[in-house]
Hints:
The structure is a homodimer of 490-residue chains.
Chain A lengths: L9 E7 L2 E7 L17 H11 L20 E3 L5 E4 L2 H4 L8 H4 L5 H8 L12 H9 L8 E5 L2 H21 L7 H7 L11 E5 L8 H4 L19 E2 L12 H24 L4 E6 L2 E2 L5 E2 L2 H13 L3 E5 L25 E4 L6 E5 L19 H16 L2 H22 L4 E7 L2 E6 L2 H13 L2 E2 L1 E3 L3 E4 L7 H16 L3
Parallel strand pairs in A: 4-16, 6-7, 6-8, 8-11, 11-12
Antiparallel strand pairs in A: 1-2, 3-4, 5-13, 9-10, 12-13, 14-15, 15-18, 17-18
Helix pairs in contact in A: 4-11, 5-11, 9-10, 12-14
Cofactor (chains A, B): pyridoxal 5'-phosphate
Pfam family, one (chains A, B): Aminotran_3
Keywords (chains A, B): Aminotransferase, Pyridoxal phosphate, Transferase
Amino acid sequence: MLSKAVKPSVIKNIINKGAVRTVTSLVPGEPNGPSVKTEIPGPRSKELIKELSAIQQSNAVQFFADYEKSLGNYIVDADGNVMLDAYTQISSMPLGYNHPNLLKVFNNDKNMRTLINRPALGVFPGEDWPKKLKDVLLAVSPNLPNVTTMMCGSCSNENAYKNLFIAYRRNERGENVSFTEEENASCMINQAPGAPKLSILSFHGAFHGRTLGVLATTHSKAIHKLDIPSFDWPIAHFPQYKYPLADNVRENAEEDKKCLAEVEDLIVTYKKKGIPVAGIVIEPIQSEGGDNEASPEFFQQLQRIAKKHGAGLLIDEVQTGGGPTGKMWCHEHFNLETPPDIVTFSKKMQIGGYFHNLEMQPATPYRIFNTWMGDPGKMLIVEEILKVVKQQNLLDVVNKTGLKLKSGLEQLQNEFPALLNSVRGRGTFLAMNAANTKLRDDLVNRMKQKGIQSGGCGEISIRLRPALIFQEHHADIFLDTFRQVLKETK
Amino acid sequence: MLSKAVKPSVIKNIINKGAVRTVTSLVPGEPNGPSVKTEIPGPRSKELIKELSAIQQSNAVQFFADYEKSLGNYIVDADGNVMLDAYTQISSMPLGYNHPNLLKVFNNDKNMRTLINRPALGVFPGEDWPKKLKDVLLAVSPNLPNVTTMMCGSCSNENAYKNLFIAYRRNERGENVSFTEEENASCMINQAPGAPKLSILSFHGAFHGRTLGVLATTHSKAIHKLDIPSFDWPIAHFPQYKYPLADNVRENAEEDKKCLAEVEDLIVTYKKKGIPVAGIVIEPIQSEGGDNEASPEFFQQLQRIAKKHGAGLLIDEVQTGGGPTGKMWCHEHFNLETPPDIVTFSKKMQIGGYFHNLEMQPATPYRIFNTWMGDPGKMLIVEEILKVVKQQNLLDVVNKTGLKLKSGLEQLQNEFPALLNSVRGRGTFLAMNAANTKLRDDLVNRMKQKGIQSGGCGEISIRLRPALIFQEHHADIFLDTFRQVLKETK
Lengths: 490, 490
């Protein structure tokens, strides 16, 4: 068994800007670059899309992948096209495909038994579970002492909202005060006071998942929300900055102020309305909604407002967490006075869940509970991922690649100002705006036809969500192809 | 690689009622019976509970398990106690622990790559995904042509509710009528008409999960719902039968009628109230709420009422599905005129999801969507589970064991009428009432101290949720120990 990360030992020659360079790939055996044989989706993918359409709604499928042949930053599709993947399954493959360390995690009888004997973790956890929680998850906690595991991002946010409601009511009720008979009876029929009118304040453009509770705080695209009943919960404006940031400092600070004032207004209004705000949920960078950033000062002030009004602060790091911004958690860029009350994760972490402080811990069991409460099999995978991240200093790789990628994109927006603007982001968690939606979709598609997978977000944005093993030579390939695509744009 | 199910080849001698009998266990090497060395939880479990309590709320933990040593129907705890498990991780281990076939699933490079390269299934599925959906899941579909995969039971129900809302609004709006500008705008701020006032009708005593949408239809215990805001959705009474059923036919038929009339009343009332019922959700046997059964006639009538009022019928088979009632899906006992519109599953199926008819398929993509949309690694596990179920005729085993277990329990309720009553259920999915809550908790605990794991449900019920490999000799052990515990009850 290989317990250490594979060393970046494979040296390759790639052609970049006409010159042959020697580069070292972190995943041995990676292709030298994309190689496209058919349109994408190709004939085999189209056949499979047809087959899948007989079984489920499948119009979102872009292509079928060959996960046996995919490697590192390269995804291979069913038609044999090799693409450089700067989107990585909507930001959820930190080590890319078929990483040699991950292939070995279950070459181990104990781990295999952990995988197949999936317990009800809240009732019958395995002997090693506390140690895993401590050594794997708490080892990367943003200074929060508790962690609760779940299955996915939506469930993590849903349950975290419940912690916020429970904590808010405990504060109102007083510590150790038990439930009234009226509360016990009324909650069973969905009525106050047992099921109280409480709210979570969210932001326009936010995405926190699609199950009914979190969907009430998601406001990125109408198609996610149409026809689904929702809650009357307050929604504030998220700052919309002017770019480049350095040239718009005053306006953007004004924008922060305006949005923060609205948050405070809404908290007061909803309290009066009889639907108090128990918590505020926010992404460090609004991802699905268009990669909208806000300043550290905005987040610092937001936390002060939350504390002032007795609302918990939940930072949703489902998409930003796990390293792509150059820190393990994006909000660590913000220098908050204290950690947020709750930080949710999923995607790159493989297992869902959230870190939280002791105030958010319910005093009694079964309030935050479900059959599985996460999955020890996924814990073994994230354990190995985090080992590799540490041993190969992948956060440094992210920062190094990110600098090159961002400055390359900035150069492109200067070269093509009619097509691109507002390059932004941290680490390799980068985005830019296209002039309009049609152009954005066209650019993403033509990049794909040249073997580069990126993604859209918001109305007009292109987002990059590469793996943490995306290196400078991958950035070069991305930028060169992007320049070519922009040049070919009519 | 072992592609066929392991044959039940191990012959053992067990002592039953004083006589040595020869029995054949479906999982080779299973212990002969429970063996208890310490109180449960023992000292090691208590130590670990303390350790876990520093990391999360952990008062629901019963003991820590040793998943390396557990085998078949026997769970071994961290103190070396061997228990016969008739609860199996809240009904989610169909083949028990460390089944030899499951240990081999990932001894296969292709399967290992499927496990670690977890895709965003809605966008970049693997080549073999349509075939897996067809060969594994649709092969056991209750005559429904579509299947959508998810991560867990709550997410499956949450998303299925969305299908119900979408289908209901499409019927109201007319096929191929697109969304109005007002709908597109209003849904983004959680308001009608885009986010309409629609409801799901549920039943008192029901359990459909704990995220906010499904929690509005869960009514089994106050502690699940206290302090969490909810929806004003209609709740009908689920039939409460008198036992034995054979002696109470007239009263129970009256009870059906009363409950069905209430369902129809509520549909009419909520329509008038401006919160129309888009769907009805029901468990074939209310599990968490106390193993409450309803008759096939009740379900047939309920379906007629749903159809009459244009509401979809969702049967939640998260706990009942996958074989424990002696059929793959419990509602197949009901002889419905047509299949339900949606059937949700999780637990024993390892992967979450739902079968549905074509009316429930949204016309456009991204309406039922999330990053992972299930997990191909779990699909490989359920594939092997279903192979073993078929090859070893485990539904027959369930029916045979169930008969013995049920008649044994009936005998015990006759012997101890002051302690036990209302034995009920199908297959090995069985339950009974204790005279009161204190006695119920005491019986479950004393059974555990003698090495038998069962579970409580509702206020006064004990539920059995053994694996599908629970055989007659396991039933004997269960019944003998239970008789002893009942005898020792003061």
